[in-house]
Amino acid sequence: MNKLIENLRALGPVKLGAMAAVAVGVLALMATLAMTGGPSPNATLYDGLGLKDASNITTALAAAHIKYEIGDNGHRIMVEPTQLDQARLLLAQHDLPAGSSSGFAIFDHQNPLTGSDFLDRIDETRAIDGELERTIDLIQGIRSSRVQVVLPQADDFSLHTAPAQASVMLSLAGAAPLDRQSIDAILNLVASAVPGLKPSNISIADDRGDLLAQAGRSDNAMLDARDASLKQATEQHLTDAVRSMLDAALGPNQVRVVTAVSMNFDRTAQTATSYDPNGQVVRSQQQSRTKSNRTENDNKTVSVANNLPGASTAPATPKSVDATSRTDQTTNYEISQTVKHTIHATPEITRISVAVMLDDVQVKGPKGQMITRPRSAATIARIQNLVQTAIGYDKARGDVVDVQSMAFANTDTMIAAPKQSLIARFMSSGMLMPLLRIVVSGLIALAALLVVFRPMVRRLTAPPVPASADAAIAGSTQAAIAGPDQEGVDNPIRAIVELIDRNPEESVAVIRGWLSQEGTS
């Protein structure tokens, strides 16, 4: 360390200042190159734009003299952070981004005097398409969408009208496929927005060419697909529940779980009517009474004297009297009645089967080697009880839980997949481009150091030289060839060598001049 300090002191302040200036310049150059070659410092103005919106936005920014940067194949626009708020206010003034379609705003700029029924129908269809596209674009995972709705046209001479139909084209934002829940949401959104449109008349496809929903499917087919999805989700839920519970007790990669669920998706409606004879209630009551009296005379003699005119008739004496009385009563009772309507629309689990495979435990053998041993029956029984509790085991339903202890395959003895080389892993890690920027920046700085700064340092640190290098070299040459008997012949040769070392460029120029003169002579 002391020797280094002494060497630095021997250089003098001029040489030290020159070296410091060169070091500072090289560091500044490397920092500049690293900053310019790194990631963009601009802030994202809008991302996930359509090409039409991106074109309109860049035109507005260029007219306002705001610098911008385009990325993600034209779907992202970035500006400087200091101009981010100004750019957004400017674009809001121009109603940008406007989206891929205008929706019902298409009627804002129409002239009612130049319209027709045909144009009105076309504009109505375009407006419905645009509004649906705006709504679908709000769903997570969708970059953009295209909707085409076919509305039925009423014909005065036709008894039947074609149903409405629609097709949806989706551009997904990521690599993951669209889940079933989002597909059902799109089907119901489109069907609810168009009168007379059924979900079975809607087709959905993505930009990868996958058919997500097929038109023409019956309602039963859609229900079957939904039932299969529900069954799969139920099995996955039970499997995850059992695996997470056992992983906490046994550790990771110690258990394998497979679940099979049988479900009844029948949808039934049942009506039951029950009567309660003990719950009688008088609804109506009617009562009537009838009385009658009958009298018979005792005088029944018939003679001529009784039939003569003016003859007196003896009064008849009653013989007997007959009296009759009758009463009628009618009572109506209301019997208690119960009517029960039951609709079974929720799927019912009819059976659950769970298979659990446990890895054998590893213990030390008599000689110290590791051997595998099946788990004890008590451990398997406890795990079986835990699994039964986790899945809601029902013996009457026929549920089955099978737990076995088996040795898992040893991955060390199996043929391992070829490992990536260090270079391949490095190239796929995403660090290649930043490292290349640093290396290129360092090479440029080194080249600048060798080409520009090194001659400057040599000129600043070189001792005073003769006025003319040609004269010095010529004089030294004459002294060197004066003869071997002369003293001090080695000194001029050493001086020439040192002079050439100190001034390589000037020496090369002089030698080239000599060679050119000899060639012309």
TrEMBL record:
Q: Where is the Flagellar M-ring N-terminal domain?
A: 42-213
Might you name a Gene Ontology BP term for this protein? bacterial-type flagellum-dependent cell motility
What kind of membrane protein is this, topologically? Multi-pass membrane protein
Provide the protein's localization: Bacterial flagellum basal body; Cell membrane
Annotated segments matching region Disordered: 269-328
Q: What does the function comment of this entry state?
A: The M ring may be actively involved in energy transduction.
Q: What protein name applies here?
A: Flagellar M-ring protein
In which organism is this protein found? Acidiphilium rubrum
